[in-house]
């Protein structure tokens, strides 16, 4: 592409951005300076990416237009996910708080960005607050939800046992109560498997960075009750999860759901009959893992949650026993059920994770044996691959482990972090992400890689891990070839049309804030529902549309938001102050 053409496209992008503050495809034009739109902490690594096929000189201007830093980008290299060349401008020397812009020779001026000691505090709060805003079974009052206040939906106090979930004590058609919890995503169903990794990730954020979360007031109904808001919010979902256990035998229902997805309506207008569907080994083990971790963590708040740590321990043990007796109850979607499946036939990772958390809770050798039988090499976690969560919890409690277990946990977590850091170092965008990482929910792949990198930092103290994690957050917040911050309401160009029922149906132009868009996904599994809406590209990092039809690239989901909470809080808390 000629330079003049690049400049023209870039200028068009800038005009569109200024006028609409929306994510526009013009913003995806090459030849721009890509930056984290929330800026940087003073002590952080600060990188801009310049999409250019030659090294260029750059300057950083302060708010008065004075040049405060000069440099030259690295030599560009091709980044396969976008099939474009990119070079790095290192702005690290910039430390004084203020507003800045980057001027790269021959390119339009960058977006303004701050250097600010609280750069990610509001993001950490908002991404956590978004869980309150998607609570099921409760009205959101204006005092807590502002203009996103709404009536209660889905009381879930009379849900039917589906034939697929029948047990001797609860035959098909039995009516039970399983209220509260969070809506999974753009849809209004509640799935135990996905709740597992989500709730654990929030609990881990608290367990790893307690000082950050103590005393943060989010303005949720429980704020001020002497419990960190993150634990109050997680409890809203744990309450629901506890009701997903069959009291007869400890089995765990796979999901609480309609038979078909609701229309694009507000929660209170969605009145389909609700069912408990399936009982699965994966649900039982994810449940056991989360309840064991929660029992350990809420033990510090016994006074505010009397009896709950013991109840959660008993629930975890019962679910574990059920899974031992039913080790291959793989979820199969019944013919009359059409909502999310969260099906997973590979269960060693679920066994290993549950065993690790139960071992940490009880100290019983049988759990350590089970962990050793099931554990495999750690990999970046996602809802269907949770083995790393066990390794991470073990590594975080190394001092309580037999020496050999501690050594292997540190080797697994540290080794995975080292591999991701090496990928990041080699990447022209300084990202761990590879082309194959751009799957449904790719924004969360970036952040789960960030979580692993942050474990490398926690284990070794090495700065390179923190910097690589910062890069992953930068990607999600705008340093990407689309020039979009994927978090609703946080950034200069953010998703406006997420596939999220309340955001579509509430009559408010802006979507519910603090939600993470799934992100680019070249498989475009939603094409049949996006007729007449064109994805801009099939390239991995460009295959995203800010359109409500696009559940495969622009939905929101609890398991994607939780790693955003973790990484925003961890980077805010871990970056050295100057
Ligand atoms: O809204 C649903 C979303 O939460 C799911 O991720 C997605 C894939 O299962 O399905 C969405 O529902 C669509 C359905 O699959 C097909 N008809 C249109 C529905 C709304 O777009
Ligand atoms: O996040 C899930 C993704 O990994 C799967 O590829 C996809 C299709 O099965 O489903 C995603 O989960 C959706 C769930 O099934 C229903 N609620 C919305 C979730 C996010 O799109």
UniProtKB/TrEMBL annotation:
Instruction: Output the Gene Ontology terms for molecular function.
Output: hydrolase activity
- Report the enzyme's class at the first EC level: hydrolase
All copies of domain Cellulase Ig-like, residue ranges: 30-106
Per UniProt, which keywords does this protein have? Carbohydrate metabolism, Cellulose degradation, Glycosidase, Hydrolase, Polysaccharide degradation, Signal
What this protein catalyses is: Endohydrolysis of (1->4)-beta-D-glucosidic linkages in cellulose, lichenin and cereal beta-D-glucans
Q: Name the EC number(s).
A: 3.2.1.4
Where in the sequence is the signal peptide annotated?
A: 1-16
The UniProt entry, under SUPFAM superfamilies, shows:
E set domains, Six-hairpin glycosidases
Family annotation (PROSITE patterns): GH9_2, GH9_3
Q: What is this protein called?
A: Endoglucanase
Query: Origin organism of this chain?
Result: Pseudoxanthomonas kaohsiungensis
């Amino acid at each position: 592409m000629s330079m003049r053409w690049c400049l023209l496209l870039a200028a068009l992008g800038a005009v569109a951005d200024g006028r609409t503050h929306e994510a526009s495809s013009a913003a995806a034009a090459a030849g721009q300076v890509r930056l984290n739109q929330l800026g940087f902490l003073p002590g952080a690594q600060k990188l801009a990416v310049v999409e250019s096929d030659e090294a260029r000189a750059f300057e950083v201007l302060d708010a008065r237009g004075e040049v405060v830093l000069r440099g030259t980008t690295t030599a560009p290299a091709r980044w396969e996910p976008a099939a474009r060349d990119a070079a790095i401008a290192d702005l690290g020397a910039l430390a004084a708080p203020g507003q800045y812009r980057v001027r790269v020779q021959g390119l339009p001026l960058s977006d303004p960005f701050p250097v600010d000691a609280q750069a990610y505090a509001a993001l950490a709060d908002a991404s956590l607050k978004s869980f309150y805003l998607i609570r099921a079974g409760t009205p959101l009052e204006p005092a807590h939800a502002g203009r996103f206040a709404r009536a209660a939906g889905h009381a879930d106090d009379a849900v039917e046992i589906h034939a697929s979930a029948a047990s001797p004590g609860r035959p098909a058609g039995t009516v039970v109560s399983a209220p509260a919890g969070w809506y999974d995503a753009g849809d209004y169903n509640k799935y135990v498997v996905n709740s597992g990794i989500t709730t654990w990730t929030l609990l881990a954020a608290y367990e790893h960075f307690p000082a950050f979360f103590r005393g943060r007031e989010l303005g949720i109904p429980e704020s001020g009750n002497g419990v960190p808001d993150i634990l109050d919010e997680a409890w809203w979902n744990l309450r629901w999860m506890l009701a997903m256990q069959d009291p007869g035998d400890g089995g765990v229902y796979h999901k609480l759901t309609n038979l078909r997805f609701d229309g694009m309506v507000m929660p209170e207008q969605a009145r389909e009959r609700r069912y408990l569907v399936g009982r699965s080994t994966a649900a039982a083990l994810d449940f056991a893992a989360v309840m064991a971790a929660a029992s350990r963590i809420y033990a510090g708040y016994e006074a505010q949650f009397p009896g709950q740590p013991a109840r959660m321990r008993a629930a975890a043990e019962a679910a574990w026993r059920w899974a031992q007796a039913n080790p291959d109850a793989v979820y199969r979607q019944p013919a009359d059920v059409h909502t999310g499946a969260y099906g997973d036939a590979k269960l060693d990772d679920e066994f290993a994770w549950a065993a690790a958390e139960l071992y940490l809770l009880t100290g019983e050798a049988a759990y350590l044996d089970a962990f050793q039988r099931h554990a495999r090499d750690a990999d970046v976690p996602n809802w269907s691959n949770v083995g790393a969560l066990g390794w991470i919890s073990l590594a975080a409690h190394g001092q309580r482990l037999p020496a050999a277990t501690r050594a292997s946990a540190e080797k697994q977590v540290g080794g995975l972090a080292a591999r991701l850091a090496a990928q990041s170092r080699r990447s022209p965008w300084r990202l761990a992400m590879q082309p194959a990482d751009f799957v449904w929910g790719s924004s969360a792949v970036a952040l789960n890689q960030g979580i692993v990198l942050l474990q490398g930092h926690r284990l070794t103290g090495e700065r390179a891990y923190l910097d690589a994690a910062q890069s992953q957050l930068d990607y999600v917040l705008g340093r990407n070839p689309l020039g979009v911050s994927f978090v609703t309401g946080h950034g200069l160009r953010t998703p406006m049309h997420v596939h999220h029922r309340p955001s579509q149906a509430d009559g408010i132009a802006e979507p519910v804030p603090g939600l993470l868009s799934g992100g680019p996904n070249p498989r475009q599994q939603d094409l049949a529902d996006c007729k007449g809406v064109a994805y801009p590209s099939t390239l991995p990092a460009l295959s995203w549309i800010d359109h409500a039809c696009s559940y495969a690239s622009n939905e929101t989901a609890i398991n994607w938001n939780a790693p955003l909470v973790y990484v925003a809080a961890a980077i805010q808390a871990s970056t050295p102050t100057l």
